[in-house]
Design a protein that fits this description.
alpha+beta, Histidine-containing Protein, Chain: A, 4-stranded antiparallel beta sheet, 21% strand, HPr-like, Phosphocarrier protein HPr
Protein backbone atom coordinates (compact mmCIF):
# COMPACT_ATOMS: atom_id res chain seq x y z
CA UNK A 1 0.00 0.00 0.00
CA UNK A 2 1.36 3.40 -0.87
CA UNK A 3 1.96 6.06 1.77
CA UNK A 4 -0.82 8.18 0.26
CA UNK A 5 -3.28 5.26 0.54
CA UNK A 6 -2.41 4.80 4.21
CA UNK A 7 -3.61 8.37 4.93
CA UNK A 8 -7.05 7.77 3.40
CA UNK A 9 -10.02 6.97 5.61
CA UNK A 10 -11.49 3.71 4.34
CA UNK A 11 -14.91 2.20 4.95
CA UNK A 12 -14.56 -1.60 4.92
CA UNK A 13 -16.80 -4.58 4.33
CA UNK A 14 -16.35 -8.24 3.49
CA UNK A 15 -18.37 -11.01 1.90
CA UNK A 16 -17.83 -14.68 1.16
CA UNK A 17 -17.62 -15.79 -2.48
CA UNK A 18 -20.23 -18.53 -2.78
CA UNK A 19 -20.05 -19.12 -6.54
CA UNK A 20 -18.37 -22.52 -6.99
CA UNK A 21 -16.32 -21.18 -9.90
CA UNK A 22 -15.06 -18.22 -7.88
CA UNK A 23 -14.78 -14.65 -9.06
CA UNK A 24 -14.69 -15.37 -12.80
CA UNK A 25 -15.51 -13.09 -15.75
CA UNK A 26 -19.28 -12.65 -15.41
CA UNK A 27 -19.30 -11.83 -11.66
CA UNK A 28 -16.22 -9.63 -12.10
CA UNK A 29 -18.03 -7.53 -14.70
CA UNK A 30 -21.12 -7.25 -12.49
CA UNK A 31 -18.97 -6.14 -9.57
CA UNK A 32 -17.09 -3.54 -11.61
CA UNK A 33 -20.27 -2.16 -13.17
CA UNK A 34 -21.73 -1.66 -9.71
CA UNK A 35 -18.51 -0.14 -8.37
CA UNK A 36 -18.49 2.38 -11.24
CA UNK A 37 -21.89 3.72 -10.14
CA UNK A 38 -20.25 5.23 -7.06
CA UNK A 39 -18.07 8.31 -6.84
CA UNK A 40 -15.97 6.69 -4.12
CA UNK A 41 -12.69 4.96 -4.81
CA UNK A 42 -13.34 1.24 -4.31
CA UNK A 43 -10.76 -1.49 -3.90
CA UNK A 44 -11.00 -5.23 -3.23
CA UNK A 45 -8.75 -8.16 -2.39
CA UNK A 46 -9.02 -11.78 -1.39
CA UNK A 47 -8.53 -12.31 2.32
CA UNK A 48 -5.09 -13.91 1.93
CA UNK A 49 -3.84 -11.35 -0.60
CA UNK A 50 -1.78 -8.33 0.36
CA UNK A 51 -2.41 -6.20 -2.72
CA UNK A 52 -5.65 -4.23 -3.16
CA UNK A 53 -6.99 -3.78 -6.70
CA UNK A 54 -9.28 -1.20 -8.25
CA UNK A 55 -12.82 -2.62 -8.12
CA UNK A 56 -13.73 -0.47 -11.14
CA UNK A 57 -11.28 -2.37 -13.38
CA UNK A 58 -12.66 -5.66 -14.77
CA UNK A 59 -9.16 -6.82 -15.69
CA UNK A 60 -7.77 -6.15 -12.21
CA UNK A 61 -10.74 -7.87 -10.55
CA UNK A 62 -10.43 -10.99 -12.73
CA UNK A 63 -6.68 -11.17 -12.04
CA UNK A 64 -7.45 -11.63 -8.34
CA UNK A 65 -8.55 -15.19 -9.15
CA UNK A 66 -10.51 -15.24 -5.90
CA UNK A 67 -11.75 -18.79 -5.41
CA UNK A 68 -14.94 -20.30 -4.03
CA UNK A 69 -15.39 -19.82 -0.29
CA UNK A 70 -12.84 -16.96 -0.21
CA UNK A 71 -13.69 -13.95 1.94
CA UNK A 72 -13.53 -10.90 -0.32
CA UNK A 73 -12.45 -7.73 1.44
CA UNK A 74 -13.85 -4.44 0.18
CA UNK A 75 -12.79 -0.92 1.03
CA UNK A 76 -14.07 2.41 -0.21
CA UNK A 77 -13.16 6.03 0.30
CA UNK A 78 -15.08 9.10 -0.78
CA UNK A 79 -18.45 10.79 -0.43
CA UNK A 80 -20.53 7.61 -0.93
CA UNK A 81 -18.00 5.14 0.46
CA UNK A 82 -20.32 3.48 2.98
CA UNK A 83 -23.00 2.89 0.35
CA UNK A 84 -20.41 1.53 -2.10
CA UNK A 85 -18.88 -0.92 0.37
CA UNK A 86 -22.30 -2.14 1.48
CA UNK A 87 -23.64 -2.51 -2.07
CA UNK A 88 -20.63 -4.51 -3.26
CA UNK A 89 -20.72 -6.79 -0.21
CA UNK A 90 -24.45 -7.35 -0.78
CA UNK A 91 -23.84 -8.23 -4.44
CA UNK A 92 -21.21 -10.81 -3.49
CA UNK A 93 -23.46 -12.28 -0.77
CA UNK A 94 -26.28 -12.58 -3.33
CA UNK A 95 -23.91 -14.62 -5.52
CA UNK A 96 -23.74 -11.77 -8.04
CA UNK A 97 -27.49 -12.14 -8.69
CA UNK A 98 -26.71 -15.29 -10.65
Amino acid sequence: MSEAASNIEWITASALIVDETGLHARPAVKLTKLAKTFEASVEIRGEAQERWVNAKSPNAVMKLKAAYNTPLQIRASGPDAAAAAEALADLVERNFDG
